[in-house]
From TrEMBL:
Domain ABC transporter: 6-224
Gene source species: Streptomyces fungicidicus
Family to which the UniProt record says this protein belongs: Belongs to the ABC transporter superfamily.
InterPro entries, alphabetized: AAA+_ATPase, ABC_transporter-like_ATP-bd, ABC_transporter-like_CS, P-loop_NTPase
Superkingdom to which the source organism belongs: Bacteria
Keywords of the record: ATP-binding, Nucleotide-binding, Transport
PANTHER family cross-referenced by the UniProt entry: ABC TRANSPORTER, ABC TRANSPORTER, ATP-BINDING PROTEIN
Taxonomy of the source species: Bacteria, Bacillati, Actinomycetota, Actinomycetes, Kitasatosporales
Alphabetized GO MF terms: ATP binding; ATP hydrolysis activity
Gene3D superfamilies associated with the record: P-loop containing nucleotide triphosphate hydrolases (3.40.50.300)
Protein name per the record: ABC transporter ATP-binding protein
């Protein structure tokens, strides 16, 4: 059994009276891919924000690579790539310039940019501003940025949003490939077919885990 890279222990998160998460335990090992499923408001995004250090639990603990995760953890920001549910971008920078900025900030060579643009079918849009992109193309740019930077854990919140079926297929390939390079993946989705790329599927309901197992155990019928 591989040592856990991310360990969430007894984590709850309340917003005023609302309990968004109730005593969640979760471990993700290097190279493991875990999918979170569950209805709207079940706590998936809240758990992902806590897992990547962008929010703190009300109670419970989060460890990354054996060390407690702290507020504004520079170590975590250096090693965890996030594709969130918002389409954040800089309006004056082209697609290529966004990726160049990420390469500079994370001190990685810019040579891979062309290959990533091509993989994400963005090569024809490299010199476009975000205002000239479709929402699916913007989502593809953010995915390319996450894949350009170094990472031990990749966290994605509903990454299939805005993508057409072919782009969703490429996304599934990307998620599978990450495991092969030892990167841990934790993602939330509303698509059971995408959850099938994971080794483990966790279903949340009302802030609690109601199922946890392999895709075959949890997703009894394709599409269920
Ligand atoms: N900043 C916040 N302030 C108050 N309540 C919040 C906040 N963020 C989340 N919540 C509440 O916490 C609960 C869980 O929300 P969360 O966004 O984690 O659900 P989700 O499973 O990601 O939903 P969806 O599938 O719609 O994205 C919801 O009831 C939501 O209203």
């Amino acid at each position: 059994m591989r040592a856990a890279l991310l360990t969430v222990t007894g984590v709850s998160r309340t917003f005023g009276e609302r309990e968004a998460l109730r005593a969640i335990d979760l471990e993700v090992a290097a190279g493991e891919c875990v999918a979170l499923l569950g209805p709207n408001g079940s706590g998936k995004s809240t758990l992902l924000r806590i897992a990547c250090g962008r929010d703190r639990p009300t109670t419970g603990e989060v460890h990354f690579d054996g060390e407690p995760m702290t507020e504004d953890d520079v170590r975590v920001r250096a090693r965890v790539a996030v594709v969130g549910d918002a389409l954040g971008c800089y309006p004056d920078l082209t697609v290529r310039q966004h990726l160049e900025l990420v390469a500079v900030a994370h001190r990685v060579p810019a040579e891979r940019i062309d290959a990533l643009l091509s993989e994400q079918r963005l090569n024809g849009h490299a010199d476009s501003l975000p205002s000239a992109l479709s929402s699916g193309q913007l989502q593809a740019m953010l995915l390319a940025a996450a894949l350009l930077r170094p990472r031990d854990l990749l966290v994605l919140d509903e990454p299939e949003q805005r993508l057409d079926p072919r782009a969703r297929g490429r996304l599934a390939d990307v998620l599978r490939a990450e495991g092969g390079t030892g990167v841990a993946v934790l993602f939330a989705t509303h698509q059971p077919e995408l959850a099938r790329v994971a080794q483990r599927v966790i279903v949340l309901e009302d802030g609690a885990v109601v199922a946890d197992g392999s895709p075959d155990e949890v997703l009894k019928e394709p599409g269920e």
